[in-house]
Amino acid sequence: MRVEGRTRRLSSLLCIGLLLTALGAGAQTLTPALPYPIPMGEGLFRVRAAEPLSRGQGAFRYLHEGYTIQVRKLGGGGSFTGHLGAGFGLTNVMDLSFSVPILLDSAGGLLKYGTGDVAASFKLAGPGRFPAGAYFGLETTATFPTGYKGIRALNVRPFGADKRDLSSRLLIDIRHNPVSVHLNVGQVISGGGRKGGMTMAGGMALGRGQLFTLTGEYMSEPGMSVPRTNRVTVGAHFNLGGSFRLEAAVERGLTKDLPQLAGMVGIRIVGNSGVKGRKTRMIRTRISADQGQIASGGLKSGETMRIAVVNFAGLEDNGAGRKLGGRLRPMLSAYSRVQIVTLRDDPVFLDLNGAIDLAKASGADLVITGRILRYDLTRTSSAQVPLIVGFPKTVAEVEADVRVVEPKKGALALTARMKGRAEQKQGIRLTPTSSDDRLTYLGAREKEELRNQAVQQMATDLIAALGSDYKWLK
Questions:
Q1: Average pLDDT, 10 consecutive residues per value, the chain (474 residues)
Q2: Among residues 56, 43, 31, 104, which one has the least CA distance to residue 266?
Q3: What's the CA gap between 314 and 349, in Å, rounded?
Q4: Domain 2-270 adopts which CATH fold?
Q5: Could you state, in order of their start, the residue ranges of all structural domains in the chain?
Q6: pTM of the entire structure?
């Protein structure tokens, strides 16, 4: 824990140093460039994430970037852009977001300010089958030419385009705690100010879900005055606990239309979708339209439903898959019309054909399989005054991709992404530090109990979800 504490302190000092370096960089002469829309839902500073917001969840973000400039005959000045926007989870797999840049240029006592082009994005995404912890999505962004186009004495850069920009991109997330990798590949279909062409971006986050999350990203997109605009961004997210996150980064421009160094600071607020305490959030992503007599309660008198629960794959070293299977079997067997099929203890994630083969070999009428995507035990806190007073707590979170297969129908009856959560609070802590928290002095037994509570809540909610679809499970 001492090493972890030093790492976090060094990370914060590094971020502060980088920002001061950027803000104190020498004045720069630039060619015109339009501000690029940034992600308003899940994502890094500029690289977008495939993971969607859940239904009813909202996200608010404001990111401010600034750099010094040199204007001919006027001398030094500054350019500032504030990215303001929000995202909304329409369903468990669809997001809609809007953003607008607020721009200000200053040099030689002259000012130019106004809003830029409004951008709207629609994302369709969800968990993939392979590898474990992967998400895939498709996002389309339209930028409308609403930016300020008035003539001012100071004209450092355009505030808006003359025509609409339209782009689409494939989003890929690969998560393996504590690291996550994000990839964006797409195409600018039409451009009013920019040239059309391919857009590519990649980023990595280290320490996801912890007090400090360090990020690095690279982006290459079609430019306005140059063929391509390339940049590298290094930053950190400071998780204040709950829904609040502070962001700070330094960006290095690799092409002449961008500043050599720019500083970025911002805040991101993500709603909790009504999930509090130890509840689980379940994201049901697909239910077959025809579930037949099994779902409609067509079991004859005296018949039982044979259910095979396969231990979930993924993060096997932590044993989360075995724990979840171990909780589901006795809970299901408590129902009079359910008989549990005995299987080997090996954790495995079965595709549709594998589940059908297992059912044929074991005589199961229903197969429950899946994979563990996340199994974390982290420190977080409620609103606090950094380094003065805090309200620390330890949070256990488990996330799983669940599949229910009806072998006789040869189809998936249910797929769901579920999140289980349990927490233990410590009250008020004065002068909190990275090593002065609940996680530090929780014993091994207490930590394991907290994890078990998260798994138990997930199992309970999965049984409830099955009960809503299968009348015999009452």
A1: 44 48 48 78 91 80 90 84 92 88 88 90 77 78 85 77 87 81 89 77 83 90 85 89 82 88 91 41 38 44 75 74 84 79 77 82 84 75 50 76 82 78 64 45 70 84 76 60
A2: 43
A3: 8
A4: Porin (2.40.160)
A5: 2-270, 281-469
A6: 0.58
Query: Angle at Cα 215 formed by Cα 91 and Cα 9, nearest 5°?
Result: 120
Cis peptide before 158 (omega within 30 of 0): no
CATH 2.30.40.10 at 281-469, yes or no: no
